[in-house]
Amino acid sequence: MFKKWMTSIALTAAALTGAVSAQAAEEIKIGVFLSATGVMSINGDPEKKFLETYIDKINKEGGVLGRPIKMIMYDDGSDTSRAVNFVKRLIENEGVDVVLGGSGTPMSMAVLPMVEKAEIPYVSFGGGVGIVDPVKKWTFKSPHTDRMVAERVFADMKARGISKIALLSEDVGFGKSGRDQSLRVADKHGMQIIADEVYSPKDSDVTPQLTKIRNTPGVQALFVFGTGAGPAVATKNIRQLGINWPIYQSHGVSSKDFLKLVGDAAEGTRLPGIALQVADQLKDGDPQKEIATKLKKLYEDTHKSEASIFVGVAFDGINLALDAIKRAGSTDKAKVREALESTKGLVGAAGIFNMSAADHLGLSIDSLRMFEVRNGDFKLLH
Predict the structure, then answer these.
(1) In this predicted structure, what is the pLDDT of residue 7?
(2) Fewer CB within 10 Å, N- or C-terminus of the chain?
(3) Together in a domain, 246 and 316
(4) Residues 266, 327 within the same domain
(5) What is the DSSP string of 233-261?
(6) pLDDT score at 173
(7) What pLDDT does 39 receive?
């Protein structure tokens, strides 16, 4: 009897050990949808490359909670309908624990009803303020909002004595939201928008809109609000038309890929960016310097190309999710959501994240750095 009892104990212990081992080895499934191709590929391609590199690095270091990470990634081709279909597949067929991505505002906004209904933690890579304002229970984001960008740009303009400006923006997604937010906060910063033109991100020429702007009396500066290939077309047209006012752009083009596309046409342009892009220009003691320097080196040593703002967006997005999973101690969706909402003091590429029930971004406007394009590179101003 004693022998049988001991054998039973041994078998039970072995079964429990096997169960624990199986649980420890269970993959954490991260679902990702990005625009690695199409008009938003200037955003999505570096995001894709970084995430592949970073997930591989984390898995080689033991994963998270002793579990390997399985990333399931789809390229939506910069198409909102494909983004919706892929997120549906990630949730219903792949059974992912967290969803990341949306390389632009249109793709991010398109999937919000689905992730909210599915009650799955979602960290967006889109810039539009409408992604998190008003707050949605399951949705968070990693890049600064278009409203914050407009306010940062207007503050810089005001410091230069500029008050009458022209606005040129995309008519969809990020650019449309950016236009709306610029109009909303202009008065607050003493700005008068005396010319207001829009273009399609698929336009190959925007000289008609720019000609109207050039012929508007009193304009002191031009603010271009968009992302992807559109602002590159606009920037070339600006110089072709001989417009020599101060030119500002949004953080949607804060990438050396953009500078390569437009060449000398970008010289003197001012725009907001993040610490990652100017890691070597940060002062000693800057709380972001260590992370920015290490991240920049990891990406650039691996891919032999610039660690753009979009690398930072992806880094912050995956780190917000993994940090929440660690603090939750599991991939239980409700617990991960609660952990995301309680993120405090998480140093990232874009700034220091402090989220709350009322703020599912958690970045301050001061964490946006102002750059000026000089000799084909970004010079940190402040």
Answers:
(1) 45
(2) N
(3) no
(4) no
(5) HHHHHHHHTT--S-EEE-GGG-SHHHHHH
(6) 78
(7) 83
Residues of the chain short of pLDDT 50, as ranges, are 1-24
Own/partner pairs, 363-369, CB within 8 angstroms, 24+ separation: 363/144, 363/148, 365/144, 365/148, 365/151, 365/152, 367/144, 367/274, 367/275, 368/144, 368/148, 368/149, 368/152, 368/251, 368/272, 368/273, 368/274, 369/272, 369/273, 369/274, 369/275, 369/277, 369/278
- Residues 6+ positions from 33 with CB-CB distance below 8 Å: 73, 74, 75, 76, 83, 86, 87, 90, 99, 101, 102, 107, 111
**Residue 164 domain flag:** yes
CA distances from 314 to 44, 142, 186, 320 (A): 9, 8, 30, 10
| Residues 228, 194 share a domain | yes
Q: What is the pLDDT of residues 168-214, one digit of tens each?
A: 999 987 889 899 999 999 999 999 999 999 999 889 999 999 999 99
Residues of the domain holding 268: 147-273
Report the distance separating Cα 264 and Cα 204, nearest Å.
Answer: 19
- In this structure, the number of other CB atoms found within 10 A of the CB of residue 268 comes to 12
- Whether 168 maps to a domain, the answer reads yes
Q: Is residue 359 domain-resident?
A: yes
Alpha helices by DSSP H, listed for 196-332, are 207-214, 230-240, 256-262, 289-303, 309-328
**Tokens 């399951």 sit on residue:** 138
Q: How many CA atoms, within 13 angstroms, populate the side-chain half-sphere of residue 126?
A: 32
Of the candidates 316, 304, 309, 302, the one whose C-alpha atom is nearest the C-alpha of residue 279 is 309
Burial of 146 (0-12, 13-18, 19+ CB in 10 A): buried
Residues 256, 193, single domain; the answer is yes
**Sheet containing 122-124: order of strands:** 69-75, 28-34, 98-101, 122-124, 139-141
Cα–Cα distances in angstroms (integers) from residue 65 to residues 13, 15, 28, 366, in the given order: 22, 21, 9, 34
* pTM attached to this predicted model: 0.86
> What's the gap between Cα 46 and its chain centre?
11
DSSP H or E run through 53:
helix 41-60
> In this predicted structure, what is the pLDDT of residue 381?
94
